[in-house]
UniProtKB/TrEMBL annotation:
Cited InterPro entries: Cry22Aa_Ig-like (IPR032179), Ig-like_fold (IPR013783), Ran_GTPase-activating (IPR051553), RCC1-like_dom (IPR058923), RCC1/BLIP-II (IPR009091), Reg_chr_condens (IPR000408)
The Pesticidal crystal protein Cry22Aa Ig-like domain, residue ranges: 241-308
Protein name: Uncharacterized protein
UniProt organism field: Erysipelothrix larvae
Residue ranges the record marks as coiled coil: none
Pfam families: Bact_surface_Ig-like, WD40_RLD
Keywords tagged on the record: Guanine-nucleotide releasing factor, Repeat
Domain spans labelled RCC1-like: 403-666
Length: 775
């Protein structure tokens, strides 16, 4: 064979072989080109179907108006589900997000949360985080931007799957159903916020899906979305009750008055009630009324039986208007009402039902609204009667020479003892051995009382002063009415004769002199001038209130009278004294004619060195006796000052010093902080903050709870009430009073005129005895 032919043969064989091998490859390449063309030329077909919600066991599809039928209320779980279908001729990868938004509000993830469909309802309501997709504790969310429908809210990717072309529903098939749970949490916000946010609102739920071919050679994508709204509302619970009786009795020919009903929910939404039936009061018989409440389409029914009878219902009437009773464990509440049913039904009063307020305590002073009702033997009930009961006790005690006055917790004034010249103010000259009210003061609220030798004073809440009693003692004029020797047998209002409308804030009584402090810090005095007791630079009587002139015209904040002297403190803490001078304020014992600054005499009182003051700061009160006095400081320290021949200073001696050496001395022997002090004529009484009372000095007729003439040189505890605390004290000449925490009064001393208030007019008491209380 020629070389050319051989070469041609070989080339032909090679070409034949190449044809055999290249043909399949060429076909394969052709298929690849064709498939690529089909992908790019075919539309990805993905859709969301069967979008619905599930409430309890019932499912609801999305309506044509993009609304779901049921309402989601607080603390309720609602299921959300939808199906993704892949109709593409190839497998696709899908990513899905869910958007949540309030239609009428901004994002409220503290109220609306989304969980996986597998999460148990109990876990969701318990606030567990397992399964939480969107909620207050979840940070992996994005805020929605405002859109054309003005929705705002949040979105989050919730799924990433592959849908194949295989027929079927579920993992690895062309269709798959996704389930979630929506929860409206009403526990994280207050009631008002919850109502304003969800009442009448809607939750917008959007499902957005992005699909792309599983073959990553293509970047072509498609998206699909759906949207629905779920109404939100508050949990509603109807309260529907009839008021009044059922059955209800009506007397023949009386008008029938419908007692009414209560129909409301916790959000006070109006509830309409229809009443059917009729009552004919002119005909005896039994009638039925039907009540129907229409509550959001639910009908709630009640009925009442009305019986028309020829009997009359009981009638309750108050025995007295606005009764008052002294504190007692045995207050008989039935005694305040009368009941009648026209037939004198036996024991009807025993059937009275009494309703007291939750804080009612017959041993606690106060005003209580007490309500009464009663039902007769056939079931007819009276109209409810309510009265205001005042429970009162003793609050303040002011002994006089032979008379006693006391103030109650509700501002009434009581008196007993000598009354020959009007000392009791009870419009009688007969001695009174038991407490009785000064009726002329009953229309006023009295806030302060005080007593002199034979006269009394009262200060009212509206800043008026009333005065009564004997005006014949010594120089007269203490009644302040512009004349002398005119007794007042009942309280008369004090009038400033120059016509000034003065409002008074303090009162004080001396032996036969009186003082009052105005709200402007001006002191008025009147009455007996012996020993310059009025501070008016005269020993003559002053018959009407007169301004007490003090050098510099300071503003006074405190005034107190002793037997024949007085003391005042101004707003700069300067102390002024006038009158009988057993205190030795001028170092020689002579009487002080006008108010005189006595700061230098008091410089030994230990005051805070850090306080720069010209006066004597931190004085709480000063109480004066005959020739002695007591200075009580704000920190509970007590100083005694003056004569000590009868143990008035309580320093365990009866030794007096010359007037120039009489300066305040700190008192000791008390268990605690002193809260109140009173000076008697020749003794003292103090009360500490623990309710313990102390006495010392001279016991005239048993005035300090020991025998007549005894001198107690140191403070001695007196507790007549079996350990109960003392809350108030009072002292004068021959009687002392202690008021206990339960409002009872105990007194010791002279009783010649019944001033102890124990029901008799003889026999001094050398111990504290319980005073009777008013009925």
């Amino acid at each position: 064979m020629k070389r050319f032919e051989v070469r041609a043969f070989i080339i032909g064989c090679i070409l034949t072989c190449l044809t055999v091998f290249i043909s399949p490859i060429s076909g394969l390449l052709s298929d690849v080109v064709s498939q690529s063309f089909n992908i790019s030329a075919s539309k990805i077909q993905i859709e969301v179907t069967d979008f619905k919600v599930k409430q309890n066991t019932k499912t609801y599809p999305l309506g044509t108006d993009s609304q779901f039928e049921p309402t989601l209320i607080q603390n309720e779980v609602m299921g959300i589900e939808f199906t993704l279908n892949n109709s593409s001729p190839f497998d696709v990868d899908v990513e899905g997000t869910i958007e949540l938004s309030f239609v009428n509000e901004a994002n409220e993830t503290q109220i609306v949360t989304l969980y996986t469909g597998e999460t148990k309802d109990a876990s969701i309501k318990a606030g567990e985080l397992n399964g939480l997709i969107i909620g207050e504790q979840d940070l992996d969310t994005q805020e929605l931007s405002a859109t054309s429908n003005n929705r705002t809210g949040i979105s989050k990717q919730v799924l990433a799957d592959t849908l194949t072309t295989k027929d079927g529903l579920g993992e690895g098939f062309k269709s798959k159903r996704y389930t979630y749970k929506l929860y409206l949490d009403g526990n994280n916000v207050d009631k008002e916020t919850l109502i304003s946010t969800i009442k009448g609102n809607k939750i917008g739920v959007a499902v957005n899906v992005l699909a792309s071919p599983q073959n990553k050679q293509s970047t072509w994508q498609s998206s699909v979305s759906t949207y629905g709204e779920i109404k939100t509302g508050v949990l509603r619970s109807l309260t529907f009750n009839l008021t009044g009786d059922n059955p209800l009795y009506v007397s023949k020919d009386d008008s029938y008055l419908e007692p009414g009903w209560v129909a409301q929910d916790e959000y006070d939404d109006p509830v309409s009630v229809d009443v059917s039936g009729q009552v004919e009061p002119s005909k005896i018989g039994e009638y039925t009324l039907e009540y129907t409440a229409n509550y959001y389409g639910e009908l709630h029914k009640l009925s009442r039986t009305v019986i028309v009878t020829d009997r009359k219902k009981p009638v309750l009437r108050p025995y007295v208007e606005n009764p008052r009773k002294f504190v007692s464990e045995t207050i008989d509440l039935r005694s305040f009402v009368l009941v009648d049913d026209g037939l004198a039904e036996p024991n009807l009063k025993d059937k009275i039902v009494i309703t007291t307020p939750s804080d009612y305590d017959p041993m606690k002073p106060g005003k209580y609204n007490i309500c009464y009702n009663v039902t007769n033997d056939i079931g007819m009930k009276a109209d409810e009667l309510c009265i205001n009961l005042t429970v009162y006790a003793y609050k303040e005690i002011a002994p006089m020479y032979d008379t006693t006055i006391a103030l109650s917790t509700d501002g009434h004034v009581y008196s007993w003892g000598l009354s020959s010249n009007g000392e009791t103010g009870r419009n009688t000259t007969t001695t009174q051995s038991t407490p009785g009210e000064i009726s002329e003061l009953s229309e006023y609220e009295v806030v302060k009382i005080d007593g002199g030798r034979n006269f009394g004073m009262a200060l009212t809440a509206d800043n008026r002063i009333f005065i009564w009693g004997n005006d014949f003692f010594e120089g007269g004029g203490v009644q302040g009415n512009g004349v002398k020797f005119i007794n007042n047998y009942v309280p008369k209002e004090l009038v400033v004769m120059d016509g000034s409308k003065v409002k008074f804030v303090q009162i004080s009584c001396g032996r036969n002199t009186a003082a009052a402090l105005s709200e402007n810090g001006v002191v008025y005095t009147w009455g007996d001038g012996n020993d310059y007791a009025s501070g008016q630079n005269t020993t003559n009587s002053i018959y009407e209130p007169k301004v007490l002139n003090i050098v510099g015209n300071p503003t006074i904040k405190f005034v107190n009278l002793g037997v024949r002297n007085g003391v005042a403190i101004d707003t700069e803490d300067n102390v002024y004294f006038w009158g009988q001078n057993g205190l030795g304020v001028n170092n020689n014992g002579s009487d002080v004619r006008v108010p005189t600054n006595v700061n230098e005499k008091l410089r030994n009182i230990n005051v805070d060195s850090n306080i720069e003051a010209t006066g004597i700061p931190n004085i709480k009160e000063i109480s004066l006796g005959t020739d002695h006095g007591y200075i009580l400081m704000n920190d509970g320290r007590l100083y005694a000052w003056g004569e000590n021949d009868l143990g008035q200073l309580g320093n365990n001696t009866r030794m007096s010093v010359s007037p120039k050496d009489r300066v305040p001395q700190i008192m000791t022997g008390f268990g605690d902080f002193i809260d109140k002090v009173e000076a008697g004529e020749n003794y003292g009484v103090a009360l500490d903050r623990n309710g313990i009372a102390y006495v010392w000095g001279y016991s005239a007729f048993g005035s300090i709870g020991v025998s007549n003439g005894t001198v107690l040189k140191t403070p001695t505890i007196k507790n007549p009430a079996g350990g109960r605390k003392i809350t108030s004290i009072g002292a004068y000449y021959a009687t002392t009073g202690l008021i206990t925490e339960d409002g009872y009064l105990y007194m010791s001393g002279s009783n010649d005129f019944g001033e102890l208030g124990i029901g008799k007019t003889s026999g001094n008491s050398y111990e504290f005895v319980k005073t009777l209380h008013p009925e």
